[in-house]
Fold these 3 entries.
Entry 1:
Amino acid sequence: MKHIDEYRDREMVQSLCRQLDKTVKQPVRIMEVCGTHTMSIFRHGIREMLPAPVRLISGPGCPVCVTPAGTIDAFIRLAYRDKTIVATFGDMIRVPGSGQSLADARAAGCRVEMVYSPMDALVLAQKNPDAMVVFFSIGFETTTPTIAATVLEAARLELNNFCIFPANRIMPPPLAALMEDPALEVDGLLCPGHVSVITGSEAFRFLVDDYGLACAIGGFEPADILLAILALVGQVQTGQPDVENCYGRAVTPAGNQRAREIAEQVFIPVDSRWRGLGMIPVSGLAVRPEFARFDATVRLDIEGHEIEEPKGCLCGSILKGIHEPPDCPLFGTRCTPATPIGPCMVSAEGTCAAWQRYGGILHP
């Protein structure tokens, strides 16, 4: 059965490529704003499958990459506190701050634990009652409900040695900020599939209404992505932008209301700084005052500070889709997976990491 499914997928991909070849009549610039899309596009060689007029641009879809260095520095400082265990997803371990990474802190003797879910950090706190366990809370709408559920469980258990360092972000506001940037030329948006499961497809309607931008929500298999690209090309060429849901098996117009309600119990929208994009209104999440005992910024009195990007690093403009990794003078020389300078080279969803691992093609 698996062989039959793979054959059908291959046939569908080939059919979609033929349709694109017949459909494209003009240049079309499409930005994907999901790190999983970026990796899938490179891993499957989708850029090479597309007609020459179709250009794919990677946007700020990696939550690790858009976390400012100052925020990372603050979390690293927590690791050096006595009787403190910091817990984080694996992508964050090697991301450099302004000087060190969590891997450096661990090498210096700090207790830095990699976890696969925020609940793992909660269990860590239960097993280490004499230490404060701090979870690095990053991610977009996809991960926020599970982090909120963990805080609610900590409250139910009256667990006093657990808190989170909040750095979660909301996806729609930075998309509006990008569309306001005259340096970025984009015709269509491949909307994030995982985020859309939570927000619903209508969360991106404002991009059509306010900016006349073609939008399509896609899944992550090659056929899913090509189907969404075909939809975007059609919208651009007919001049009829819309929010087209090409991932109907997972995404609905209204999204997951229950997940959003759980997130809203714990978090409240606030202005937030994004690496490369600056301060964006109501684009981040802070812990509500009633859960302040689980907020490391309040309980441990620590916060991030603005820090300049490393000299020569173009991570910020790469996140904005203005540059591609080969444009950066550090790419593949001083900045490599073994010696990363910017987060885009470290994260599994980073654009530079995708180029380095799978290679890429430059469009004229």
Entry 2:
Amino acid sequence: MNRQLHTSSIIVDAHCDVLTVLARENCSLKEHRDSGHVDLPRLRKGGVKVQFFAAFISPQYRGSCLRRAMELFDCFYGELNECSEEIMLARDFNDLEKALELDKIAAILTVEGGEALEGRIEVLRMLNRLGVRCLTLTWNGRNELGDGVAEAWTYGGLTKFGVEVVKEMNRLNMLIDVSHISEAGFWNVLEISTQPVIASHSNSGTVCPHPRNLTDKQINALAAGGGVMGLTFVPDFVHQKSPSLEKLLDHIDYIVSIAGPDCIGLGSDFDGYSGRLEGLGDAGDLPALTEGLLCRGYKEEDIRKFLGGNFLRLFKKVWNRKTGEDVVC
């Protein structure tokens, strides 16, 4: 029964960094790797049906951020071609449903770090045309859009350009991702955005007091606006001393207790960190999460929400029309 519940659920992972690994190691997504967390064999074993692929703009690429994004996009589209029998691009909700019907993994292209825009709104529109459907506004530091969590001491939020980007992303029906942004920036986004937003890979700051996790107030506000947070498996964000699957389940218990079951999803951050979370080491281990939720007494309805249903509800609302080439710029 446990396995049937898992395999029949639409599992969504709202964040992974495998593109960086594939570009660096010149390997393919279709090949099983002994290291890291993500490849197609392990995605299939774990039952993942919708996978976000982040083009992470590392600080080392300052001065060539857009070029770095293009390099990772090239890697992404190369993988789509090579693995076309198992994975397909999802530009909108119709594409996502088609991928599920064909028993393929729906691949959603994202950018982690607004540095890729290099301060130009025209670049955002062109990234959208290239298939980007979600933007993590900042990484930990400061960029043209605003301050990340590492700059929180300044109490700085969005810049004027950041405000323009949020409004344009609403117009383009792109997902706005508030993971990594400063708390001031978080509140700026929620005030400005006309659509629900996501925190693609963040946990509870009460359960684990790490700067990258969200406060109770943030979680409640995100939930009240119809947003979803993807719980991440980064050990440092799960527990300071003994990170494990059981501790991750504690995050779910706590978030449900303060904000209900409708704001929780998954955002592994696989291949974005070294090491492994005990009990949930890579994408192939995701059935253990479903088993853990059953052991905690959660109803099947809520488990399906956590595994992907909540994100699917939000995607359908935000991607409520065709995006990309039909948008007049």
Entry 3:
Amino acid sequence: MSLDILDQFHDPGLCKSVLERLRATLDGHPLRFMEVCGTHTVAIFRSGLRSILPKEIVHLTGPGCPVCVTHESEVNAFLDLAENPKVILATFGDLMRVPGSKGRSLKIAQADGARVSVVYSPPDALKIAADNPDSMVVFLGVGFETTAPAVAATMHMAKAQGITNFRVLSFHKYVPPAVAALLADPETDIDGFILPGHASVITGVGPYLAAASSYGKSAAVAGFEPLDILQALLFLAERKRDGRPEVVNLYRRVVRDEGNAKARAMLEATFTTVDALWRGIGSIPGSGLEINDEFAAFDAKREFGITITECPPLPGCKCGDVLKGKLVPNMCPLFGKACTPAKPVGPCMVSTEGSCAAYFKYQVD
């Protein structure tokens, strides 16, 4: 694809200027960057930006797709719960086709008679509970600190309204510890990170400062327009050239450096941090959000005695290595053959934010 694609951008002249500065800054030296957020992954491919980046840039996708990092054992717990005839599962639609360790999914369970309802917000699940007082409605809490405050607020609503047949199965995950795990992994080879714009609205930049101070890597919170991403890449390239690692917020029109104190207060009032399993990465300390004792009455784990343990990964699926930036999707032997969006083997091919789905949709070589 030629540079004519710049004409499609909101400010083609400025994008071209930043691209030229980026090329001059690199001066033939490589830059391996990882965008952590799945929305960034889609934005990079959909805009055509990846096709015009300097050849020195190696683009790696990270563990910022909520569905992709949901562990096989967690999906198995969803499927086990779906077999309970007294339970209605409420879930966001992108979880429906995620395979468990035996290849089954919620979509298959629904076809077999399980009561699974797709909702668009946690309060929708609460309404289902109010409308079905003889059933236990369990909302599948999957996502990052971006969506967890709304789930927490819904539990507060349930408590205030006296709705006693509503539960949450919380497998929410917290992004900063995952970035820290990547930084600490001696096998990763990443020069800098584009940090998630949405999650950083909640956290701010503080949790990521150790990337520079402890690991000597630069990172930038960025928006999702092509110019946002180009400016973040220029920042990473300049800091690498100058040997001056730094973490910066380049998305100030949306993200405050300190984040959203009210949303964090809601999380702290409802959840406690625990170790959590991430698909392909394993257990990451302090990266999970578990319902605290005050809201134990709404905790599906306690209600149904659910425990989570490691289980074997899906045979042949390299989604974990993709999430860690150790290989690109089309290097997986299943990619485009046994694993396609129509028949996904792993979660990175299921979600619209998954890197494998993006590679397949945009036909990346």
